[in-house]
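Continued from yesterday's entry.
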Amino acid sequence: MKIIICGNYGATNIGDELILKGILKYLGARTGAPTSANINSRHEITVLSANPGLTQRLHKINSMAVLPAGPRSFVKGMLGFSFLRTLSAIKKCDLFILGGGGLFDDTYPRASLIWGIQALAAHMYKKPLIILANSFGPLKTFAAKLITRLVCDYSRLITVRDEGSKKLLQQMGIKKKITVAADPAFGLTQADLCNKKPVKKTEKPYVVFALRKSNKNFVQLANLLDWIHKKYGFQIKLISFQKIIQDNTGFQKKFSNKKFIHVLPYADDFCAIYKTIENAEAVVGMRLHSLILAILAEKPFLALTSFDKIKNLLASEGLANLALDINDKNLSKNFKTAFENLIKNQSSYIAAISLAKAKFQQKSEENKKALTKALKSL
């Protein structure tokens, strides 16, 4: 079967690449370190990507450019013939998978348009469309709501990553069955993420911070780094989950003279990122997939966020107390209290995270079950 997977891939976002890795595993692809370009013997898979070369390197899978959503990208696609190649691939495919991730979201003004165009191509060629492991919202503009509804109405199957997304779609009048599952990254094991032999390293205890670029909270966050080091003696490792955004640029300039802060350069090495989190004393994450990796590694963590998708994720399995609102005027006080509890009661937190991990993994399998059932019906 010829399958196309379309999402925010090739955009130097580690979270999206972990999602793709999980979806490929659903489809029976090897996820460790495949040596062949065709990693799936049952299906012929093509991934639509912002950077096909990068996607091919990371996942050893055939990749083509996403359809353009603006005049400049359209001209570029026509001149390089990528536009026509992608349309040809969609015309020949048996199934079009849209997702996963937070694709339909007003936070990024053109997001709904970009993904609506991809779905429109599937509709144009009358290809079955599956919306897999998506989060929806916030959706406030008329255009975003209209595009989202049209795409959902055309789809044969919808699975979402949280209850909030399901409720939003139902409020918008979507009548189709919506399955609440979990992020495909929860379906990954340690072997999927890192098949390298462990290397023993002697280093000082450290805490991982996975930040988003945020000038508003820069000073406050910087003060919290100082507080952690002074109180516990921990080193700080700053890791970035997206190259384009450059999450850690401000900290790198401000604290280049502080030896306890280590700004790790962006890398798309899944194993290195996982090991960095696995070996940490704790994780503080503003990035969703830094928290998912912490859960997979059963590592104590705190979430700093204003995003509902993160709050809903943690609340769904009893971890709501680990989420702190980044915009809270009492953030500094609340963070210190929460972090002290995290370090003091590590064993109880790890037990709760381990229990949540098992439930998230079980939910993630719902994506695979729904996808398998859909494939059999084609």
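--- second protein ---
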Amino acid sequence: MMGAMDPGRTPPVPTLDAVAARAGVSAITVSRVLRLPALVAPATRARVEAAMAELGYVPNLVAGALASARTRSIGVLVPTIANAIFADTVQGLSDRLEPLGFAVVLAQSRYDDAREDRMLAALLSRRPDALIMVGSPATAHGSRLLRGARIPVVETWDLPTDPIDAVAGFDNDAAGAAVARHLAGAGRRRLAFIGGNDPRATRRWLGFRDAAVEAGLVPPQRLVLDRNATAGAAALQRLPGVDAVFAANDAFAIGFLTGLREAGLAQDAGGAPAVAVIGLGDLEMGRLITPRLSTIRVHGEAIGRAAADLTQELSGSRRLDLGFELVLRGSG
């Protein structure tokens, strides 16, 4: 007698036939949608794609591969390769995995939820032995894809309370709080946060805001910026009266410092920074500019090595906090 599925059991991996049944088409039609979509009527194609999304189906592009075959590849999803902030993590995991004979297959989400889902599906379709991503899945669909993949999944650059599998990162809330406490202790009173609105930046903002309020300051301002090279510099005009800025990453912070210099506001009459500026990431450029950039140093390469070890189950813990450091320099 059949009963309800044991909630502790992993649900079966969706098949092409299951997609066909859900969409009300033949298996051949589903195959055409995957391989020759231009030959399928748009309405039929949309129905098949909706069924794949509902079931969490990922096509296997490794032709003829056995279900148990290993591809000796690791999928890696990062927000962007245009920002050097993630380069150390990719370097660290590559240095660990390549000597073991693994190929690293890299994709970018570009901070776009729909693109992230597509890139996760594209990586999983190549049947990697594991998948590493910066952050956590942005959508429920992405989470379902990863939970149903039956491979090691490692989230990085954060410490989610309910990870898909394993996590190697740091506490973004605590990083923001550390910056706010330092600025309050240094006598800064009108704080602001600049940067993107992705989940990790948002957690930095929340930690920053809450710690500032706890220190007796008025709630800081938050300015969400476009992700381009001039956004940080342009932010100055939209934050009149602030005396300290925490940027979600060093790129925004460096841009803001450039804006201060161009406006002749880099220093007050006593030679101290007119507006204290602190970034995150400890990019090399931040150590070369004047004033040198204060920052949250994240151990990106160590995160990458730890993530690689977690894919091979070489760590005793599935949740590794690599911490961070507040590095104070001339900017604040």
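The longest helix spans residues 199-214. The chain has three domains: 15-55, 67-170+299-322, 172-298. Will compare against the first tomorrow.
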